[in-house]
Protoheme IX farnesyltransferase, mitochondrial
Amino acid sequence: MATSLPPDASSRLADDAARHPADSLRRKLSALLSLSKPRLTVLVVLSAMVPYALYPVPAFLSSPALATAANIPSLSPLTLLFLTTGTALCSAAANALNMLYEPDTDAKMTRTRTRPLVRRLLTTRAAVLFAVGCGGVGTLALYWGVNPTVAFLGFANIALYAGAYTPLKRVSAVNTWVGALVGGIPPLMGWAAAAGESAVADGTWRELLFASDGSSLGGWLFAALLFAWQFPHFMPLSWGIRDEYRAAGLRMLCWVNPARNSRVALRYSLVFVPLCLGLCAAGVTEWSFAVTSTPVNLWLVREAVKFWRFEGHKGSARGLFWASVWHLPVIMVLALAQKKGLWTRVWRSVAGEPLEDDEFGDDEDDEWIEDAAAGSAVGPGPVSR
């Protein structure tokens, strides 16, 4: 299985750095970028962007004329820029700190032995400065460009990944669950970023993450989806290199308890069907998403059943790993393509038909507009910094 994995981006960048003179700018930049684990960082950013795009914006925000008349912001490309930039920098910081913590164990594993700190392509001081710089700038970008709640989540992800997950790898197999929590936070960041732009009260974390009207449910469903996905993805991946994990002293279920390793992968693969149904019920996607996502989810379940029956043997680990690789982007694209009300708005825009007053909700939307308009007379509006 290990030989069938795609080339590691960090290793390829480290190889590129090693081919250049020690004092060259190309070598330094490639080595620093390698610290960020680029492919993982891209996945983290995308997992924040999708919930941001799927956030059910109130009806009047979809109309630039109304937004201008009420002097209230709509979802902003500038906010999205700060969200993606800040999230990418926070992810880069967490990954760099991870590499700083375990160069000795990285040196014992095929997947990680070519990382820049193992090969001494960078000094420890340079890696620390890179991690601290990315973490600081990323958190500030989220604070000033998005909102304090998202900034806190971004910083918390750095602390959880580098301060809890990484050292726990040597102690207990529970590290995988902590790592899954790390994967579930970026979707909450994207959701809270969009919620902050349409907040009607003080825009605190309570309103953005625990709204009394249940509008926060979509963000938590996406967080649960990313949390659950880690297990059918990582369990077969780790099984393929279980002997290396054992030799490096990293306590993963793949060698500590192989039978439980496969059961956990199967257990979490089963939750995607109800999670996708939940997104429909929460008004994030159309009900058609429940239909189109089911074949993809059942494919993942089928491969997880094989992985459980054969405990990774007979190609079952490889089958589940690649199913998980394709599963997440397909689910995300399907959700984006079936956002609640998207095609109705597209059709009416093309056909020139006016939008009905109750298309996006009931009288609550009218109250939303009245509250927001009144806010302009009494003080600052939603927190979106």
User: Anything to note?
Assistant: Residues 107 and 343 are 51 Å apart (CA to CA).
